[in-house]
Design goal:
Length: about 110
């Protein structure tokens, strides 16, 4: 699993955690007990993923997430699906396979290939 995929999975968990902890979400309807157990499992799974990502990437993820809600977005046909701007070819060619994160130069979101 590469770094982008790890961050995408962390994001999935964060969205689920948000759903469980958000009083307005339907998670609460299933009973508080269930929600609490679910939350602990989600947090545990997130911790395990976090251990596999370096601090720098993780803090970048947190920063973008607090700004947009979603930090990792797909890009398709050279288009960032977060801000719908074209990602320059130079940016794409700079990415080192499986190592460097690919960032949108316009909005700063982390991009993954669809
Ligand atoms: Zn963008």
């Amino acid at each position: 699993m590469d770094k982008t995929e790890l961050l995408a999975r962390i994001q999935d968990l964060d969205l689920m955690i948000h759903e469980v902890t958000d009083p307005a979400s339907k998670g609460q309807e299933e009973g508080l007990g269930f929600a609490v157990i679910g939350l602990e499992r989600l947090k545990e799974a997130r911790r395990k993923l976090e251990e596999q990502v370096d601090r720098r990437s993780l803090s970048l993820y947190e920063r973008v997430r607090s700004k947009y809600g979603r930090a990792v977005v797909p890009f398709q046909g050279k288009l960032c699906l977060g801000c719908f701007m074209t990602v320059p070819t130079s940016t794409l060619s700079r990415r080192k396979e499986g190592d460097e994160l690919l960032l949108c130069e316009n909005c700063g979101r982390i991009l993954y290939w669809l």
